[in-house]
Amino acid sequence: MTRILLFLLTLATTLSQVGAILGQTVSLGSLLDEMTDRSAVTRRPNYVCRQFSSYDRASKSVNENWFANNDASNFLRSEKNGEREEWVLMEAQGPGAIVRWWITAGQYLSNVYVYVDGSSEPTFSGKIADFIGGDALVGAPLSEETSRGRNLYLPIPYAKSIKITCDQMPTQRTLYYQINYRAYEPGVEVESFSLEQLAAQRDKLAATTERLLNPELHLHSANSERQGFKRHIPSEMLDGLYGAHRIFGSGAITELEVKLSASDLALASRQVAIMIEFDGEETVWAPVGEFFGAGVGLNPYRSWYSEARGDGTFKSYWRMPYAHEARVSFLNFGEQEVDVDYAVSYEKTPWTDDLMYFHANWRQERGIATQGGAGARDWNYTTLQGAGLYVGDVLSIVNPVTEWWGEGDEKIYVDGEDFPSHFGTGTEDYYGYAWCCPERFDSPFHAQPRCEGPGNFGNTTNARYRLLDGIPFTKRFQFDIEIWHWATTTVDYAVTTFWYGAAGAAIVDGVGPDRDEFEDEIAEPVAYKCPFSIQFRDFKFVGLSPNASGSASVQNMQGFTKNGFSWVEDKQIWWRDGKPGDQMTLEVTKVEPGKKTLVLGACCARDYGVAQFYWNGEKVGKPIDFFNTPDVIHRTVRLAIPETTTETGTLTVELVGRNEKSIGEMLGFDSIAFE
Predict the structure, then answer these.
(1) For position 242, what pLDDT does the model report?
(2) Which stretches of 452-524 are assigned E, i.e. beta strand?
(3) What gap in Å lies between CA 431 and CA 441, rounded to an integer?
(4) Neighbours of 310 (CB within 10 A)
(5) What is the H or E stretch that residue 594 is in?
(6) Cα separation of 312 and 137, whole Å?
(7) Contact of 256 with 343, CB cutoff 8 Å
(8) How many whole angstroms separate alpha carbon 237 and alpha carbon 241?
């Protein structure tokens, strides 16, 4: 009997799954164990995953306000609790567990109340920002703010039901939220969350934190093996596989380490693809950089499942089981030759019927037309058939303007739903940040390893990895995201999706490009470093001085009017977060030879700074203060310049400080002319 129990424990991948076998209860402790058990996602789950969010309730169907964008402060209802009014974010009948919670707001004044198992008294309550993204319950990385998005990944199990509310909404004004939760199968016993239980798990929380932040630890068992290889892959060898390595016998890949060497490493990371077959079926095909989560270019970062070191070294910690054989191959679709130095770590373990195969699929579409705030379209990440578990994705986009590209919501349909059980509030919200914030971050759960800038211009890569918030499906899975952009332009989207599938699970036929299109896309040159300029009617932004602070972007000025004044083309070049001594360069494209006065249209506001101007490198005039007086939002500046003889010129703007009454040092310009 003892041997049988030990064998069952070896096969079980999480304490919750052991519970399904031996009657153990799901608890905070078992969920923390499952969070860092890499084999948990390889077995068929006993729960479903759903989402509550503040998405715009006007979105009723594809035929009725499908792309409505008022995604803040939409609740299930409001109700009285004594003298206090509370707004309900989520309510669900158990057994279940909250597994991911994200919020953002312009301010955090509300208190949150979490009622477990029908109790009239909250299990915990307090300032919402202290609990979500703060350390009231637990510290980073389980609770932290990333690029203005506040996240909580501490699991909150409940046996019967849960209700989450907040208060002070008239004062709070706006609150965006997403809550992912598990609903377990009837009969699964759950020990409900309590603060006493949390205190009792402090040692386990510390161990979980250490493992999450050090994903390379505890990867291998006593029967692990590691084999290393180095392959030279010729250029444009599209008809064969190179660097192929086979592993025979039942087992599981536990780690892949790849080191690329090439004259252009960034390009090699996109034009060299990794392909993996399990038991004769190809389940992994993606560019190396995107498979490992770095996106386009060399972008150092680390998550629970993968990392990139910025020197061409990449690591994967996905567990990939197989019954008979695994084969790892590399293909070079570029013109340069590439050396691939790689190592495969694996364990010899038995295959069982509840195991699933690992999949990673890539697709790209270039030149997608956007509608400039007038609407959107749904773009398909992937559509799958069969049974499996969706566990993450990496999105890389190229945006040719500084305006925000990611207003669109995720819409995830599970097992043939008419309305998605996951309907989000914005692309950056799905990836754990907020307010289109172009700040690099990484964590075990989500990352923005690249945001080229300035503003939201150029290459951006977002990643999300699902540890406890994986989405099970039994027959069909469809993930769409809205392409909802504030500008009318074209963008490129590329996504790698990660999932586990039972035997026979696959991408639905006819969804996405075929293999030839994949190969054509990866072979095409990629803008892994985008040249930037902002073109206005008569001038364009060239750049900021080396090591300058802040960012430049185009600001829509339609809402900033007074006394009948209107801005040229309703926009301006907007420089934020600079520091004294920084410079911005504008190229003037229509200079009138012989003119001696440059006329500059400039914004004035209570948070604007003082600037010194230079024409073709020569200082002109004295510093000018753009702090506003009442009723003045714009001023015309005339600068005496040397008589010009060319049709182009350079205007340099140096930030030199600010008025003592000003609360900031921004600068903005909407027009340049000559007299």
Answers:
(1) 59
(2) 458-465, 471-473, 476-483, 490-501, 506-507
(3) 11
(4) 13
(5) none
(6) 38
(7) yes
(8) 8
